[in-house]
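ERR on first pass: missing label on line 2. Operator R.T. fixed the label and resubmitted. Corrected input:
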Amino acid sequence: MLFADVIPDISVKALDRPFQYKVSDELKDKISIGSLVKIPFGNSNRQMEGYVINLTEEPNFDISKMKYISGTVENSITPMSRFFKLAVWLKHTTGSNLNDAIKAVMPVKMQIKEKNRTYLKIIVGGEELKAALETAEKRKYVKQVEFLKILIDIYEKKSGEGNPFVLDDGYIDFDALRKRYLLESAVLKSLEKKGLIKIYQNVIFRNPYDGLSESLPNENEIELNDEQKNVCDKITELYKSIDIKNPSTLKPCLIHGITGSGKTLCYINIIKEVVKSGKQVIVLIPEIALTFQTIKRFTAAFGDRCACMHSRLSHGERYDQYKRAKEGLIDIMIGPRSALFTPFQNLGMIVMDEEHESSYQNEYSPKYHARKVAEYIAREEGALFVLGSATPSIEAAYKAQIGEYHYFTLRERAVNGAVLPTIWITDLREELKRHNRSIFGAKLHELILDRLQKKEQVMLFINRRGYSGFVSCRECGEAILCPNCSVSLKAHSDGRGNKILKCHYCGYETAFPKTCPKCNSKYIGTFGTGTQKVEKMVNETFPGARVLRMDRDTTSVKNGHDKIIEKFSKGEADILVGTQMIVKGHDFPNCTLVGILAADMSLNVNDYKAAEQTYELLVQASGRAGRGDKPGDVVIQTYQPDSPVIRCAASNNYRDYYTSEIKRRKNLQYPPVSHILEILMLSPKEEELKSFSDTVSEYLKRKSILALGPVEADVYKINNIFRMLIYIKGEKEEKLERIRDGIQDFSKNYLKENSIKNMVIQYKIT
Ligand code: ADP
Ligand code: ZN
Ligand code: ZN
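pass 2 clean. output:
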């Protein structure tokens, strides 16, 4: 008889262990390790799903009481066995439960058959369409006339702005059109025969960016400069000398190259060698930089041997990419952190671009950092791990310093004649003294006028969207809070010109109050400067300038991000106003001025990484100016012009910044020199949470473990769930892992003994 250990698909700590089931004879051949199966669970025999993690002929308890597996889940995907090992490792290092870890390593769980879908593209000009319409009208081909009118309409609206039938790159969704207009496939075919359109089946799923490569400069022919050649040669050599039995040959490589120095070009060249050797490559990109600019370049170099995964793909599209990887139909997978779990047969390299990006941290259970997981996977599979950044994270730079990473630099901008921009610092306190209350200091104002006149482009960067726009009373000082979350509501416009208040955590909305809810004063208003407000002030100060705004509001629509970028790069706007999003990896040769409106905002955040994040933002933002052959300017406006971070960023002095930052981290025992275990406790019951966190704290005292807290989290209440934190610092990660396991055991028992439910504990070690 066969028995299966099954992990139920349910994220409850108490149930985070395998349960044994009997396997009936008829299921025997259908089940293997990794299968998703249906099981009766608990006293009520509720039907659930679970993963088989072990098969054995030895039962580990009374067979007569053991239940049978009820069946397999149809069309489920069985993960490769190495992904199970990875899940166990993830559970161990992050302190998550096994079920969450299994889910994380399987970004695609089900086989989904996408129906055959039909797309078309218009392949002639407007004149030809109109001529065809005339002919059809003359001959009274009613159906063709209707279809052609729709096509002309789409054509005139160009890339389909606001047209729901037009997808990326001009693909027109015929199935959607047909729902609306009762069109027939026969008409479609006849228009194709006439040479007006081209029909595609499912191509978009095969490669979402198909067709783009035609319009690309061919980078395959670019000759590497000496610096780039040196980096590529050395890393390729390291790749070729990998010996999986000798871990020292697997030391990761950090490329520290200023923006525009050609890091991406280097990756492409190194990847070519890896692909030539018959192995596959995962290229990690921060989600936000995953625009078609990046994908275009890879597609141009590797054609349809490269695919991409991102959050905007449908389940069917994801499954398709997953399958292509598993079947060896592609060599390269580009994607955000979840692309780490691409099921390649023979992984040769993992590239992590913009390694410093905070989006590489997974904020849900399992709370992993992609850098650490990539390091582990690369080591396990004998692959080379290559990281790149213009502003390496302190952690990666520290590893390079202590010899855990190889270190390479690219110091020059690659494009002939492209030089680093001139950087101006504006002291906002001085501006105020001179009675300039506008958000534009004198220098920025002057340079914007200059660029508008020269028909060059400008980017205005605001440090943090969430920072501003909160509403408070000038008489009693009260801020207006969300009833569900303990954060202040932000002022917004609802798109119809009405002012509303909105919660950025739970989405709660309410009308803008006329008087203060507390003291009834009429003097309530917004403070700080949000993107909408900057947009408005740009319009007022520079009438006639065409302004685009990029923030979470304008990018939340499908492909909103790409569309704004495309518009700006086509020169359809003079000024782009935006948050963090605009500083990531885009190339706008005609943009020669970058204004950073309040550079020090993020310095005031209560986080040991505040300085690191500010430095990164300033350097990345400055890197956007003058990428082409025209010289650029950057204006940094700040209230703290003497802050070392701002001064180092302005002079692009990474070394001084790193030295002072690592010294501070050493003194304060912060990562990467030391490590921190963060224990986040969540519960809808405030009293219970407080007393529980005190209990954990007492437990730690009894064990003589030095801890900080319990303290209320930065945002204490989200969606009516309260949040408390405890921090423990330690020199060794392993020691913190042991402490964490101890807390886990202790709290499991404590919660059980006191019948406390709804308490969630999450751990994160950095
Ligand atoms: P990074 O990734 O470091 O920001 P990129 O690889 O995007 O740099 O390169 C910036 C621009 O310079 C790209 O348009 C690229 O095609 C171009 N480029 C890179 N290397 C060279 C070179 N050796 N010769 C000419 N152009 C180059
Ligand atoms: Zn008031
Ligand atoms: Zn809320």
